[in-house]
Specification:
The complex is a heterodimer.
Chain A: H1 3-16, H2 19-26, E1 31-37, E2 43-48, E3 51-56, E4 64-68, H3 70-77, H4 83-88, E5 93-94, H5 98-115
Parallel strand pairs in A: 1-4
Antiparallel strand pairs in A: 1-2, 2-3, 4-5
Chain B: H1 3-19, E1 27-32, H2 38-50, E2 54-59, H3 72-79, E3 83-86, H4 96-104, E4 108-111, H5 117-120, H6 123-126, H7 130-146, E5 149-153, E6 159-163, E7 170-172, E8 182-184, E9 189-192, E10 200-208, E11 212-223, E12 226-231, H8 234-243, E13 252-259, H9 273-277, E14 282-287, E15 301-306, E16 310-313, E17 316-320, E18 323-324
Parallel strand pairs in B: 1-2, 1-3, 3-4, 4-8
Antiparallel strand pairs in B: 5-6, 5-16, 6-10, 7-9, 9-13, 10-11, 10-15, 11-12, 13-14, 14-15, 16-17, 17-18
Helix pairs in contact in B: 1-2, 3-4
Classes of the chains: A alpha+beta, B alpha+beta.
Amino acid sequence: MDQALAEQAKSFFEKAVTLETARAHLGNKNLTVLFKVLNGRPFTVKIRDGGIRCEEAGGDEADLQLEADEETYRALFRGRLSPAQAFHRRILRFEGIPYIGFPWLTRLMKLIQSGG
Amino acid sequence: MSYRSVELTGIAKTVVETCAGMRAGETLLLIADLFTDPDVIQAMATAGRAASGKVNIIFRHVPSRPHALPEEPVAMAMKGADVIVDLSRYDIVHTLPMREALFDFGARAVNMTGHTIETLLAPNVAEIDYEAVYAKACQMIKTIERGKVLRYSSPNGTNLTAEIGGRKWYPLAGIAHQPGTFAVIPIGEIIGSAVPGTPNGKVVLDFLALFGKLHTPIVLHVEKGWVTKVEGGEEAEKLRKMWEGVENANYVGELGGIGINPKARLTGRIDAIEEQMKLGSVHIGLGDSLTYGDRVSSKMHLNATFINATVEIDGKAIIAENRILI
């Protein structure tokens, strides 16, 4: 597993993003996002009433499943690449129909931008 | 004032308020071009203003081909809009500027490209209960997503099965209220893909996008998700030639297109759009699958339609004889 990427994500989601900010973007919806990493181990970000947790992926059902390589995730998290650009370049993929995932991803990216 | 303009006011109000869910204070962007009827622009602008929206109209340079990128001023305007309604000739749904507007900036969009006053006043647009169709689409999706095996059949010989366990389907049925969503007029269809490698059987086509109504049905033989044999007349030969050199053009990338518009007709138009949406019609998408939740990429995506379809989930019909049974 790419520890550096997972740690970076953990640090980011659990420290930089407040639950209050998350609620502002997500309404009262809970959200589980599964990040599949090409050639790496997947991790999840769970936003719940109790807080925001980033952890190694288990068997939980995710609202949104993404797949990309490390470099793409890093670019997304740092705001160097937008979800639309990544999808358009076919370096970010969704499990399931993208139309379902995109509204969630849009909210997630706004959340990331607000905390970054 | 003409009676047509009164009727247009009704459909414009439906698009702005029901389809896009526009709220007071939101920004509406109308994209038009030389081919857009001024009465349509006026009706849409009036509807946007009546919804207490901030209405902006931009005229797009007419490109020489469909799916061309919008010019930069148009792209910029799209990023600032809450609701985008495209009234121009060629759609830009799959372009990067539209994806950025929807997915990065959280806009909602309604694609109304290529319409005339006549097509907007046709029953499949003007006489639809949009919320009811959307609700029915969502109900049908719940049934489909609980199922394991989907089967299509039709009187002209279609018999195709595919596994669908665990696959997600989506209602392309006229409601775009969430950021990043879009609707297409006319509505409506339910779209999704099969478990990769599982579609098997035969599809006998009545219509094909870019061809319109077929003079001789085209028969597609499908094995493990790929069209392995194409039979028919001159149009079948034309299809085979179109596919030459196009990687993955013969992949069943979209299992549905299941049409659910009760007022859609068989118009014989070359794009076969209304046929695809018609309740009782089914189209499979040949080629690119990424938009439908599969992983096979192609430069081509061609919608292939058959009519009078029976749709079964785990042996139980959900559509037959042009009626929804659930």
